[in-house]
Amino acid sequence: MKYKLICLDIDGTLLDNEKNLRPEVAEAVRRAASKGARIVLNSARMPAGVEPIEKELGVSCIKICDGGSYILDGDTCISAEHFSTASMEGIFRQCARKNHLNLWIFHDRDWYVTGMDDRIEKEIEIIGYHPQIMKVEELAGRWDRENTGPSKLLIHARPELINQIKDEMAENIRRGIWPDISMAKSADFFLEIFPGDIDKGSVLKKVCDILHISLDETVAFGDHEMDIPMIQTAGLGVAMGNAVDELKQIADHITLSNEEDGVAVALDKIMAGEL
To answer: Residue 7, Cβ neighbours under 10 Å: how many?
Structure first.
């Protein structure tokens, strides 16, 4: 097969809208792996949300978790990055608490929240992992002593408020108030915050460097804003039929939606040499 690495976003791409891995999609990924392709799951999910997908696929995967700040090969961490507790505390005060929102805080394999709500309960149901309720100040104090910080933060809100918060954060980043972070929407209602030099494209390049695979030999599949750098970086960037317009505009190919086995349809074309 022409391509040696298949990089897959999970939600809205590999999984359908009910968060299920459809049989046709799973079988197509297994066929690609059997032809020698390395499979990479590239997601904003924490490890506990990615590992069950790998198990269901039945294929050994590189797992890019927390949007790229924590990367696993098997059970071995091959990369972990964090940003400052000062930025975490500022984002909590100015973006979460001010808007009466809970902040989701991730550190490597661990998940913390500043309070519980219906969306957090739904996430627990999806991934089967219960976060710890913690005060931001307590986490900051602990991590300062350990010389570490968060891997990722997440804010959930209605789309209009997410856009407002994103604009405010962008202004603070421009002014140098939070110089060590970057951000992107993984859904209309999710704003993800990462270490400043990380996006899904840069971590795809990092994995390729580790595996000694050329970017020209990679395929990436995605559906949302956060996937755009990955689609731009890969040798072949595939947008799902349900992808946002911004991603479709820069993709090399548009496949069917995640409800129509779009990943399987495109992989079959790739394995047949049609893409």
So the answer is: 30
